[in-house]
Amino acid sequence: MATGMQRVPGPRYKHIVDEEAPYATLTVDKLTPIIGAEIGGIDLSQPLSNKAADEIHRALAENLVIFFRDQHLTEEQHLAFGRMFGDLHIHPAAPHAPDHPELMIIHADRNSPRANGEGWHSDVSCDEAPPMGSILYIKTCPPKGGDTLFANMYAAYDALSDRMKQYLEGLTAVHDGEDNYRGTYANFGVKDRPVYPRAEHPVIRIHPVTKRKALFVNRGFTRYIVGLPRDESDGILRYLYEHMAHPLFQCRFRWRENSLAFWDNRCAQHRAMWDYWPHTRSGFRVTVQGDKPY
Question: Which residues pair with 121 in a beta bridge?
């Protein structure tokens, strides 16, 4: 168990749970004070006003991941919703819908050797400019299981000791997609590329919108901290992975058919549970381009 939370007094999180100005176009029902909210009163299949789009962006900034129930979207409507928040990212390895390279297939059934996102990660953090956000629309759910966990990397950073923050300040780490992607999608008929993305990013990044600091290393892609002996790097990363997975930083989303999740990869990590075999979980993900972490 991570020990960092034992050092954190409650008032340090007060700004997260303070009452905000009311929303005019939608409702926001927080899952926890730290992360996650269900959004109501809005139909994403219909054109959104600028006010509604601004309030969705605000809800994302305040809650890191937001959820929409009972949405009925075509592929084109899913893509259009993503484009309201920026240009769309094309995954470097995963299969996509026919004629829509920006629409990543998310599918696991009784014949799958694996499921997407089984370990804690931030999507495609191995890119030079990792994605800003991901928008996952699940249309087919197993009868039980298949939840996704999300964790707040602001809170994980805030809960570190001052000495650990000082130690990590200015360090960078290498993120590499090679181990994750090579051979991973062979069951979909996807051929491997000659090389996969690899990039160096700060261990602590500053969110370009909120200006808050967040931890930006993850088990899925981070390989080592630059400039440290490998055993020291391994030890620090092992501690950080354990620390950031503390349950008090998390929320858990139970999917239903036609649900949609929109999360901010710059300050949140997630982990999908593959606890529903031999049943099927299926949908599509649209990913919004981001910028180089600083």
Answer: 270
CB 187 within 8 A of CB 96: no
Whether 229 maps to a domain, the answer reads: yes
Instruction: Give backbone dihedrals phi and psi of 262, rounded to 5 degrees, phi first.
Output: -125, 115
**What's the domain range around 219?**
4-288
Cβ within 8 Å of residue 225, ≥6 positions away: 171, 172, 173, 203, 217, 232, 233, 236, 237
Cβ atoms within 10 Å, residue 292? 12
Beta bridge partners of 201: 173
Average pLDDT, the chain: 92
* pLDDT tens-place string over residues 9-38: 333 333 333 446 899 999 999 999 999 999
Ramachandran bin of 6, using left for φ above 0, alpha for ψ from -120 to 50, beta for the remaining angles: alpha
194-225 confidence digits (pLDDT tens): 999 999 999 999 999 999 999 999 999 999 99
From the list 278, 266, 272, the residue with the least C-alpha distance to 130 is 266
CATH number of the domain at 238, please.
3.60.130.10
Q: Record the tokens describing residue 269, joined without a space.
A: 């990590």
Domain count, the chain: 1
Q: Compute how many other C-beta atoms are within 10 angstroms of the C-beta atom of residue 111.
A: 8
The model's pTM is 0.91
Judge whether 269 lies within some domain: yes
Helices (H) and strands (E) counted in the chain, each on its own, are 7, 16
| CA dist 268 → 51, 114, 209 (Å) | 25, 23, 14
Residue 160 backbone phi and psi in degrees, to 5 = -70, 155
- In a domain, residue 294? The reply is no
Report pLDDT for 4. Answer: 39
What residues are labeled active site?
Answer: 121, 123, 270, 285
The answer to whether position 76 is within a domain reads yes
Query: For position 200, what pLDDT does the model report?
Result: 98
Residue 114: strand, helix, or coil: coil
